[in-house]
Design brief:
284 residues, alpha/beta, Glutaredoxin, Serine Threonine Protein Phosphatase 5, Tetratricopeptide repeat, 2 domains, two-stranded antiparallel sheet, 7 strands, 47% helix, elongated, disordered N terminus
Length: 284
């Protein structure tokens, strides 16, 4: 296998962020700068919790790229948290003020999520438990994602995060979105499947009155389009299902071609496409 092919495959499969099947529970306590305790996952309010562990209060800006993704979700179901692996309140506060001043200078929006402190810093047991990699000179991004029920979806060390090039947080959450729609269809609850599918992949996107000047319609992703195709199939709207699955197929096939292999996702998409086409032929 060519080196570039291996690198592409490695980056692809790491970015997929396939959720853990084992139901590992996670509990810890973090601190605000004013000393208040934040219990995880009790404080999550039944939402996804994404924690980026960083060496200092300066952060690394990684979660900022997901702020728009989180705010655009139809259900406000995701919390983002930066957790500093240093419990020196004074130092963290100073770095956060410097960061805020720099963002203001650049006319950039401040972080929309909290920065909390890990009690005991690097000596906290969760560092070893999660296999974190820490390096102040070359800060590594250690990510923990908790499902709404508090179980671990993925725990990615700095080594893994350094190798993957995709949007792993988005991929994991949208994998779950599709899974919820699949479960609704399996139970015969078409109304619930429709509610979820059309919320994540609306047929029409109207520009809000208070939308910013650079507003653009939400770009529909593969899991959401594929879910909508499944719902259209269940509804008997076969032409609409065919249009969606064809768009999904082109995207998935292109991704598979990029890494020069037939992926499981491609095979599943082809099977769904064949099912929809067979239903269309039968109808005609």
């Amino acid at each position: 296998m060519a080196g570039w092919t291996y690198g592409r495959r490695q980056g692809h499969f790491l970015a997929i962020g396939t959720p853990e099947e084992a139901q590992r529970k996670f509990q810890t306590e973090l601190k605000t700068l004013d000393g208040k305790t934040v219990k995880i996952p009790e404080s999550s309010d039944g939402k996804w919790t994404v924690i980026s562990f960083v060496p200092t209060g300066a952060g690394n800006g990684y979660l900022q790229r997901y702020a728009s993704f989180v705010s655009a979700r139809p259900f406000q179901d995701t919390n983002l948290i930066v957790a500093v692996l240093d419990d020196d309140v004074e130092t963290a506060g100073k770095l956060l003020k410097e960061k805020a001043a720099e963002l203001e200078k650049r006319r950039q929006q401040p972080d929309s999520f909290p920065t909390l402190l890990v009690p005991g810093g690097l000596q906290n047991p969760i560092v070893r438990k999660l296999g974190m990699i820490t390096d102040e000179e070359k800060p590594k991004n250690n990510i923990l994602m908790l499902r709404p029920d508090g179980s671990i979806a993925v725990a990615l060390s700095g080594l893994v995060m350094g190798a993957q090039k995709g949007s792993v947080i988005q991929n994991v959450i949208e994998f779950h979105d599709e899974e919820m729609i699949d479960k609704a269809l399996a139970k015969g609850d078409l109304d619930e499947a429709k509610r979820l599918a059309f919320a994540h992949a609306p047929v029409e996107q109207v520009r809000p009155e208070d939308a910013p000047r650079n507003w653009k319609p939400k770009k529909l992703t593969v899991p959401h389009l594929r879910s909508r195709a499944k719902v259209y199939l269940a509804m008997g709207e076969l032409k609409a299902a065919q249009a969606d699955i064809q768009e999904v197929y082109l995207k998935v096939n292109t991704a598979a071609g990029y890494i020069s292999m037939r992926t499981e996702e491609l095979e599943e998409t082809e099977a769904l496409k064949a099912t929809i086409l067979a239903a269309l032929e039968k109808e005609e």
